Amino acid sequence: MSEERTEGERLAELAKRRGYFFGASGAYGGAAGFYTFGPQGAALKSNVEDAWRDRFTVQEGNFEIEAPTIMPEPVFEASGHLDGFDDMLVECPECGESHRADHLVEDNTDVEDAESLPIAEVEELIADNDLRCPNCGGALAGEEIEDFNLMFETNIGPGSSTPGYLRPETAQGIFVEFPRIKEYARNSLPFGATQIGRAYRNEISPRKSIVRTREFTQAELEQFVDPERDEPDLDSVEDVEVTLYPATEQGSEDGEYVETTVGEAVDESIVGDAWIGYFLGIAQEWYERVGVDMDRFRFRQHLAGERAHYAADCWDAESEVDGDWIEIAGFAYRGDYDLSKHGEHSDDDFTIFRQFDEPKTVERAVVDPDMSVLGPEFGGAAADVKSALEELAERDPAAFESETVAVTVGGETKTVDADVANFRVEEQTVSGEHITPHVIEPSFGVDRTVYTLLAHGYNEDEVDGETRSFLSLSPTVAPTDVGVFPLVSNVEELTARAEALVDDLRESGFSVVYDDSGSIGRRYRRQDEVGTPFCVTVDRDGLEGDGPDTVTIRERDTARQVRVPIDALVEELRAVSDGERPFDDLVAEYDLVAPGADA
């Protein structure tokens, strides 16, 4: 068995050789941070997306949308990404290479979360530890660290075009369409909207293969809730066991993981919000289903300094690969930040009307401006002045206690006499009120999930005296469901029957590969290495007996084979693939083929 290579090196070699992923545009020297998924990788990635869609969209009863990947600049002014979506950049004075300053600290010191530290403290760590440029070895002590915005800028249209950006997350495509999406939900909370699509971040130093790239796929759910009324179905996940790494434990010298259940974590306020706890429970079960090694998986709470500008609280799902923990999903309580910002910056309504159980009588500040005065004084801006006065009355009634009232319209201050504004407080009977929903966001990195499944699924053992490498991928996401082979390729009866089986299995919804090249053992090894869960072999023994025709089903992880009737093949493969029947049941019911049949 090979132990000299790191897990990452071994995975990169396998991924390239077997068509999972490889650096893009290699014929032109490539570009860091961009990858092409080959036939196996594209299929695995698509299956991961389908499994996520089934659990987080279909089973949750949510909507799915597909928004553009390029959006105009005002979207990101409102969202805060223009001002707050930065990484720490330090440039080598010798070779000019740019590096993530926080990554240099994390890679060369005992500091684990340098991203959460102030720039001045990161500069001190670089100087104190005499950190140097990984490219040329030049000293970085004393070099200024700058904030670098990660968004890719572009232009929309020719000539004096509109500035735009490639979206850094799929979420904004959901938020800006909230006024339309809420109509599909009949203006009733709670509801969720999902999106699976590409996002772009101009990473300073892409690294670790497809873990940190400049173009990647996200699967995100924005759950819109009334924070005063809506509760999740926590009972459905309360007994799900989770491994948590709270911020309090991370800050302690002897900090430890907390092994608990979702219900206990919420009850004991380890997880502060029930909605976050609910989605942690769903994610735990989903990750286990698609094949993540739960012994190399945890939920880590963000420290205060590393939370995104929009997040009141955030937990990451992390997997261990090659000795490092990598974020593969984030669960953020975004509050009303996003919808409030878009409501302030746009001309649309980002609220939901909440009906009261019974009508209420309330005191409300109102204005009834004298338009016969505003019209001549402000001309075409009179209507805007009136609207500004109405908003001010609702927001700050005390502003009308002075003799004059000032409002801002079109960037200019307009002054109105208080008696012209006709301010008063009156009693009104109202049936409800407009509220801005809060948002809980589970955001999954699809590429990083694929990387984790490949890393956690890679195994080596010995079969028939030879070292065998295989990917133990869940049938839920494996690129190919089943391989079909004739035992030998020069017997027409066997090849014809095998080809007919391929057609039957494909018509039944299986993804099938047919292979008649080389020895049967080598064909098994090829499918083992790409993670195909089952192989079906047609041989003379199965077609020449007195009973019904049979074939062998071989299970990838153990290399065990059982002989089953061809008439039962589709049914049995479906049962073991869906997890409805363990392979051990087939072994108990049917004839186990003697060891050595791989040869």
UniProtKB/TrEMBL annotation:
Gene3D superfamilies on file: 3.30.40.230, Anticodon-binding domain, Bira Bifunctional Protein, Domain 2
Q: What class of enzyme is it?
A: ligase
Q: Which residues form the Aminoacyl-transfer RNA synthetases class-II family profile domain?
A: 9-475
Q: Does the keyword ATP-binding apply?
A: yes
Question: Where found, per UniProt?
Answer: Cytoplasm
Q: Which GO terms describe its molecular function?
A: ATP binding; glycine-tRNA ligase activity
Q: Extract one GO BP annotation from the record.
A: glycyl-tRNA aminoacylation
Q: Show the PROSITE patterns listed in the entry.
A: AA_TRNA_LIGASE_II
Q: What is its EC number?
A: 6.1.1.14
GO cellular component terms attached to this protein's record: cytoplasm
| UniProt keyword annotations, A-Z | Aminoacyl-tRNA synthetase, ATP-binding, Cytoplasm, Ligase, Nucleotide-binding, Protein biosynthesis
Q: Write down the Pfam families for this protein, in alphabetical order.
A: HGTP_anticodon, tRNA-synt_2b
* Similarity comment text for this entry: Belongs to the class-II aminoacyl-tRNA synthetase family.
Q: What is this protein called?
A: glycine--tRNA ligase
Q: What high-level taxonomic lineage is stated for the organism?
A: Archaea, Methanobacteriati, Methanobacteriota, Stenosarchaea group, Halobacteria
Q: Which gene encodes it?
A: glyS
